[in-house]
Amino acid sequence: MSHPSLAPTPAMETARSPMRWVPSLYFAQGMQFFVVMSLSTFMLKNMGLGNDQIAHWTSLLGTAWGIKWLWSPFLELVNSKKLVVVIMQAVGAVALLLMALVLQTPWWLAGALCVLFLIAYGSATHDIACDGLYMGALDHQRQAKYAGWQGAFFNTARFFMVGVVLKIAGVLETSVGVFNAWSVVFIGLGVLLAGLASYNALSLPGQLHTGHTDLRASAILATTLKIVVDFFRKPGIWLAVLFIVLFRFAEGQVQAIGPLFLIEARNKGGLGLTTSQVADVYGWVGTTAFLAGSVLGGYFSAWLGLRRAMPALIVAMAIPNVTFYYLAITLPQDLWHIGAAVLVEMFGYGFGFVGMILYIMQAVAPGRFQTAHYALGSGVMQLGYILSRSISGDIQLAMGYEHFFLWTIFGGLPVLLLLPFVRMSAPPAGPGGPDGVDAAGQTGRQTGWQTGGDAGHGGDGAASLARPDGPTTAASTKPAA
Q: Closest Cα to residue 99, out of 177, 178, 1, 185?
């Protein structure tokens, strides 16, 4: 007697509502990203690390999202993106629980950094498969329909991690001590991510097994090399790379040191906020302002066009530098005063960052490998951000907070001076057009580049207007690393 297969049929997959899995998928994506790029900063600061060490290590961790395009094509050798997603979420859950353990050992720093590297590279790999699963499971109409929910739940993770989890850590620090507090926090996060992995194993479309694929690693490597060579042969590409790096030169330094300044003791030139207070102003006020700025920056750019909007967007990117300089010279004690300054800072950051995402989309990516070149351009952006972030701690320790933030104001001027010489639109497309077919009959989309993303973050990256520090997904509003 034969039994019907329990595996979902294509019709069942199509009928399954994306709202059953998009929220949990992108919340898990954001959760892992913000553990590495946000929570770890505050944890290491409260455990006694200097700003220079924190900047060095978190920058090195952020490299994972900047170079993930190197291995993203090879994930096409695994037919089941669902399998990769669930495995990476399970690895992340185990790593979070392991973090809780290593924080109780004498070698906690080395252990914590090793675990954070595991989470970072697992999360970057998760991003690739996550965005590939989204695009593979939905047609173009439904991709656009649910793109807003992607960004919403990625940023819900930001609210949760910086607004709720950091708040809990701050409360626990005063009662059980810093190390015990963070161990408790990571146990909770590990259990939560394990629960999400279990749920996604059941709810995500696709199968938890690998099938046969006709792709070969050698063919993928050959096409990848062709894509990279084609990228660096674009007219004016080196000027474009310089523009991308300078655009985030000052921002990377401020985003690394700004949160540490908030929590630094007043006798060392900081504002002396508690972890709980930082959660209030950065987790809630800051995230809300960033999202509002990102949305309005997108509408502003659409209204004026990128060429006319870019000067204002560059100036907006300097608002955080000016705001932190103001805080450093006035050292206000009123939390409402500080919260208002953070609101202005994050709004300017979100508003201005739109300019770089649109520049990569419209001036750098177009051509025969548009999707792949968006991923490469985003990788350059992230690596430039990491470079500036990595030197920020040393500069701040040498100058002090006040002069450091003044330095970042001047650090934002070179990109404005370079602007008149930079093309704001792509040259006419060559043979094959965007994502065109090369001589071997292969396209960027056929080799896994559709899941390459940015540093953050996959897809064509359309309207990825709010992910400055991590992954970039088509038509989303997620922050990039």
A: 185
Buried b / exposed e along 41-77 (16+ C-beta atoms within 10 A):
bbbbbbeebebbebbbbbbbbbbbbbbbbeebbbbbe
Please choose, from the candidates 200, 159, 199, 164, the residue with its C-alpha nearest in 3D space to the C-alpha of residue 185.
Answer: 164
Q: Is the pLDDT score of 299 beyond 60?
A: yes
Nearest Cα to Cα of residue 357 among 232, 433, 444, 247: 247
Helices 178-203 & 166-176 angle (0-180, nearest 10): 140
* 31: nearest Cα among 160, 164, 197: 160
Which DSSP string corresponds to 157-204?
HHIIIIIIIHHHHHHHHHHH-HHHHHHHHHHHHHHHHHHHHHHHHHHS
Element (H, E) at 352: helix 335-359
pLDDT tens-digit map of 345-397 = 999 998 998 888 888 888 888 887 776 787 788 888 888 888 999 999 999 99
pTM recorded for the entire structure = 0.78
Going by the DSSP 8-state scheme, the letter that residue 76 receives in this structure is: G
CA distance 459 to 471: 11
Q: What angle do CA 47, 49, 53 make, to 5 degrees?
A: 145
Model confidence band, residue 28 (pLDDT cutoffs 50, 70, 90): very high
Give pLDDT, residue 457.
Answer: 36
